[in-house]
Amino acid sequence: MQPTTEPPQTILDLVTDVLSLLLLSTITVQSFVGRWQVLRTKLTSLQSSLTCLSESPLWSQNPLLHTLLPSLLSTLQRLLALSHQCSSTSSLPGGKLLFQSDLDIASSSLSNHLHDLDLLLRSGVLHQSNAIILSHPGPGSGKEDLIFFIHDLFTRLQVGGVEFKRKALESLLQILNTDRKSASLVAKEGNVGYLISLLDFTNQPLIREQAISAVSILAASNDESRNIIFEEGGLGHLLRILETGSMPLKEKAAIAIEAIIGDPDNGWAISAYGGVSVLIEACRCGSQVTQTHAVGAIRNVAGVEDIKMALAEEGVVPVIIHLIVSGSSAAQEKAADCIAILASSGGYFRDLIIQEKGLQGLMHLIQDLPGFGYNRTCITCT
Description:
It comes from Salix koriyanagi. InterPro entries: ARM-like, ARM-type_fold, Armadillo, DUF7032. Residues 16-125 form the DUF7032 domain. By secondary structure, this protein is an all-alpha fold. Among the domains are: 8-28 and 38-84 and 104-124, no CATH class; 277-382, Leucine-rich Repeat Variant, CATH 1.25.10.10. Helices cover 74% and strands 0% of the residues. The chain contains 21 helices and no strands. The longest helix is centred in the N-terminal third of the chain and has 28 residues, at 96-123. The termini are far apart.
């Protein structure tokens, strides 16, 4: 819904009036009494939230409410009309099934509005003057200013429409790119789970691209933000993007995946999410950036027993040897590390490597890169 031209106080007064009528109406309904009792509980909660809202001194300046309140008013008006249809035991227009569907839809909308309003109230942003465009904390700003900025940013991200989401993500990327140290605070104070959910925003490509950029930066910044991404289920989303996304999205996903499973405690999840074949395919067909980080991810889990065998079954050895021969210098080094790890695990992998002419590839690599060293080759030959 587009923001209304009516003053916010006028809309709030209308919401309050309709809510009062609706609360009275729910007492006298004759049909679907149980459902209306549940709705009455929600409406009572809404009444309390609106009271808290009106007591916030700068609430009317928050642009999110310019959209939220009109949408809430529309939902309450719809519920009031439905309650009038239940005021007698006579048959319902369109039948019970259609009415029940309409009531469920309106009830779901009310729950969403309650969630958004509660989020606004809890975030503390209604006690500050807000513009549509976020004002970034200055160089001399303290930690509390940055925390408020993060709360405001994620509130806009969750409650706002597409334009609010886009601007909030722009601000998030700006602060992450300007100060990588802010990643820990963003991960701790922001709703990372919601940020990850935007990775599935396939109907809004720009928002999805901004979200994957933010997740990639957070994953690669430090242990704390990386682990929060993992704990919020980010790895599964990232693997899906690596499998099906556009080239720029795949590159950012690969960066994040390599960082996440750089922690040995997270490596098991690659197999759990079905990521072994996805990583191998990325090494086989991805861009140079994607290949470099995908093979880095494989290197990070090559020593895990169960995953190691899955890698062999999926044909990882010839793919990695191909990268040693033709990949970028960064991909070559990571691929050689991976071969060394696999070769050191036993004769089965050493035989595979020799069979696929991996030894020759390593020797050529040493000749092409004099500073590369002999350790990997020695391990492979042993």
